[in-house]
Amino acid sequence: MPVIVQTLVIHAPIEICFDLSRSIEIHMESTSQTKERAVRGRTSGLIERGETVTWEATHFGVRQQLTAVISEYERPYRFVDEMVSGAFKRFRHEHRFEERDGGTLMTDIFDYTSPLGPLGRIADVLFLRSYMERFLMQRNECIKRQAEKHWNQKIR
Asked: Model pTM greater than 0.85?
């Protein structure tokens, strides 16, 4: 069961960072390399507690769908999305936000179990963990760019 933890300092208020992290449109922009799009459940706007979204994307050359639900929600400090159905055996993705030095410290904790038992654990070591680390970092860098751009335009 790998756990990926990533932190990123964003020079924008916590509320902006929290909302951009829940934005369906920002998620699709940040995952354009996999052609990810929302196809069921919440398909636009800001996802809320109890709502689901089904993503369709191409990973490793295979078109697949994954449905997640927002299971925990404490605006603007944290929310959790958990897989309902999809390629993983399970995952829990916690998004944390802390006010820090006039900006926001964003922390992602992605805890997952690969399918296929021992073969999945081998895949984690060989390529899946590093793939997921890059995937999450690209998403977080997109959130950072959008938050800082939005905030800089607002304070001018």
From this structure: yes
Q: What does the pLDDT profile of the chain (156 residues) look like in tens digits?
A: 899 999 999 999 999 999 999 999 999 999 999 999 999 999 999 999 999 999 999 998 899 999 999 999 999 999 999 999 999 999 999 999 999 999 999 999 999 999 988 888 898 999 999 999 999 999 999 999 999 998 877 765
- 106 and 95 in contact (C-beta within 8 Å)? yes
The SS3 assignment for 5 reads strand
145: buried, middle or exposed (CB in 10 Å: 19+, 13-18, 0-12)? middle
Residue 150: enclosing H or E segment and its boundaries?
Answer: helix 129-155
DSSP for 76-103, written as a single string: TTEEEEEEEESSSSEEEEEEEEEEETTE
